[in-house]
Amino acid sequence: HRDPDMLVKTLRRLRRRVDVNTEVGVVRDIRLKELRIYTDYGRCSRPLFIVEKQRLLIKKKDIQALQQRETPEDGGWHDLVSKGFIEYIDTEE
Asked: Which residue ranges does the record assign to the RNA polymerase Rpb2 domain (predicted)?
């Protein structure tokens, strides 16, 4: 690929929007000139809040909406992930 940085950014953006499964790991090894895409389930990953331009994407109104929901089905963790506030990061990323 001619622009590997852009490819990695695109894959991670798709993962944040849940267009690509959240368990997919995207790792770029500059030293070896490799891009590794892990798609196997059960990989160790951790959730992180997304920060852009040194600011959290999630806002107070989003947290208040979570607190005011009537039932667990009215949103919650899955909504935070699907809205791109939280991203699962592979241990190698």
From this structure: 1-52
